[in-house]
Amino acid sequence: MNGESRGGPVAGGPHRPGGSGGPRVREGVVFPDTGDGHRWVVGAVVVDGRGRAFAQRRSPDRKAFPNCWDVVGGHVEAGESAVRALAREVAEETGWRLRSVEAELFRLVWTPDDGVDRHEVDYLVRVDGDLSSPRLEEGKHTEFMWVDEEHLHLLHDERDPGDYFIADIVQKGLEAARHLGLNDSD
User: Fold this and answer.
1) pTM, two decimal places
2) Residue 12 lies in a domain
3) Span 89-104, mean pLDDT?
4) Does residue 118 fall inside a structural domain?
5) Residue 59 sits in which domain range?
6) Angle, CA of 2, 30 and 17, to the nearest 5°
7) What is the pLDDT of residue 185?
8) Buried b (16+ CB within 10 A) or exposed e, 141-163
9) Which of 54, 96, 102, 184 would be a feasible disulfide site paired with 129, CB 3.0-4.6 Å?
10) How far apart are CA 150 and CA 10, in angstroms?
11) Which residue would you say has higher pLDDT here, 61 or 67?
């Protein structure tokens, strides 16, 4: 394992994987062993404390899910833990810093056109940085928006109506944030 994976946080509250410099991890959040030979993907539903979640539109020339709304995330690199991949993807795609991992939202296995299974885990996260001005990854994302539960339908884009995974995972994130008392806070 890569130092901060499976055992979960120490009893008594949030802990910081790999020492005091990493993001806080809420008690009970467990990370997969990303060195198990599978192709891992992590997703981050970023919430702002005002009952909204961040979404970004993939550029129209992306190979997978072109011109669709998405959450922050991507592939776990060789030798990288899930929490380090979350922090890297947040920084690369938005310029923000991962502050905390609050909950696991969903796990799934999906297979894109290349035929290689992806093992995905999506998390509810908080970040530090200017939330009004993310630095979108050039060439990969074209726009962003913050959505609340009343506006989830805006994430129903050019996909087949049976494939509204992003809207569903954002809804799970917003519900978890409300349940954990993360709204109306810093």
Assistant:
1) 0.86
2) no
3) 98
4) yes
5) 24-179
6) 45
7) 57
8) beebebbeeeebeebebebeeee
9) 96
10) 36
11) 61
| Distance (Å, whole) CA 47 – CA 125 | 7
Judge whether 46 lies within some domain.
yes
Cite the DSSP H helix spans in the chain: 82-94, 165-179
In this prediction, residue 183 has a pLDDT band, given cuts at 50, 70 and 90, of confident
Annotate 110-126 with b (16+ C-beta within 10 A) or e (fewer): eeeeeeeebbbbbbbbb
- Which band of pLDDT confidence, cut at 50, 70 and 90, is reported for residue 55? very high
Confidence check: pLDDT of 96 > 50: yes
Question: C-alpha distances in angstroms, 83 versus 75, 91, 170, 172?
Answer: 12, 12, 19, 20
The residue whose two tokens read 């806080």 is: 24
CATH number at residue 158: 3.90.79.10
Following DSSP, what letter does each residue of 29-65 receive, concatenated? -----TTSSSEEEEEEEEB-SSS-EEEEEEPTT-SSS
Q: Which two tokens stand for residue 21?
A: 């410099």
- Amino acid in position 27: E
pLDDT at site 1: 33
- Residue 121 belongs to some domain of the structure: yes
- Provide the domain count of the chain: 1
Give me 156's structure tokens. 């129903």
How far is it, in rounded angstroms, from Cα 174 to Cα 124?
A: 9
> Which SS3 state, helix, strand or coil, does residue 154 take?
helix
